[in-house]
Known about the structure:
This protein is about 35% helix and about 15% strand. It is an alpha/beta fold. Helix 1 packs across helix 10 and helix 8 (about 205-215) packs parallel to helix 9 (about 250-260). About 55% of the residues are buried.
Amino acid sequence: MHCKLVGxxxxxxxxxLGCEMGPSALRTAGLRSALEDLGYRVTDLGNxxxxxxxxxxxxxPAVHHLSEMVAWTGLLSDIAYRESADATPIFMGGxxxxxxxxxxxxxxxxxxxxxxLFVLWLDAHSDxxxxxxxxxxxxxxxxVAYFTGRSGFEGYLPLLPAPVDPARxxxxxxxxxxxxxxxxxxxxxITVHDMRxxxxxxxxxxxxAFLNRVVAENGLLHVSLDVDFLDPDIAPAVGTTVPGxxxxxxxxxxxxxxxxxxxxxxxxxxxxxxxxxxxxxxAKLLVDLAASLMGRHVMDRPTRSF
Length: 306
C-alpha cells in the first residue's frame, strides 16, 4: 500500500514541446490525493533529471537528442530498479521515451526476484523503431524495441541486464504503425491488438487473455499508459493524436480489470502535454484512470463538468 511518484519531465523524444509539464499537471490534477483517498501511503520523490550527457552521434541524420536520451534512460533505469524494491512506482512523464529506462530497470528488478516482467502497452503506436529505422528521429518511438532487446542500440543506449521477452509484451489500442515497425513486429511474438480487434472481440476478452498468461507464469506486470491510447475527443492533450482511440468506458474497464487482477506492480503515465489541454480535462482523466487502476470503483468517481 505504498506508492512512489517519480516525475520525469522528458520531452526530447517527442515532436512537440510541452510534455515536460506533464508531471506538474498530474500533481495539480490531484494524483497524490486520489491515491491517498484510496488508503495508499504516497511518497512524491519530485522530478528527476540527469546531469551527465555523453557526446554521441548516430549515422541516421534524423536522430536527435541522442545524448539526452541515453542519459535519461540510464537514470530512469536505476531509479526504477531502486524504487520498485519496496513500493509501487508511478512514473509521470514526459514523453514515452521514459519507458526505455523505466521498463529496463523494472525488468532488472523482476530478474532479481526470479520472476518474469510482463508489459501492457496502452498506446496508439507500437514504438518499435530502432535508431536506424526511425525517419522522424523522435526517440519516443523506440522504447519497446530497446527494452525487448532488438538489435540496433548497441554502443548507444545502456546494455540491458534483463531484456523483456517480447512474448510477454501486449499492445492494446494500436492504430498507427510505420511500415518498418510493422515488418519487424510480425517477426516477433509480441501480442498486438489494434482497434479492429477491440471492435470485434471487446477489450475485456483481449485483456483477460493476457492477464491469464501473467498469472500462469507468476509474473510482475508493468502498465505503460500513453495519452494517445485514448480517443482525442476525451483526451486532447497529446501531440500525437490519432482518431478512433479507446472510449472513456473502455479505458476505465481496462483499469478496473487491472486492479481486480492484483498483478500491476508499476505504472507509466506518459505523453500528457498540458499546453494542448482544455481546462485540465486530460490531466484529470489520467488521474481518474490511475485511481481506477489502484482501486476506485465505478460508483466512487467524482462528477465533473467541462
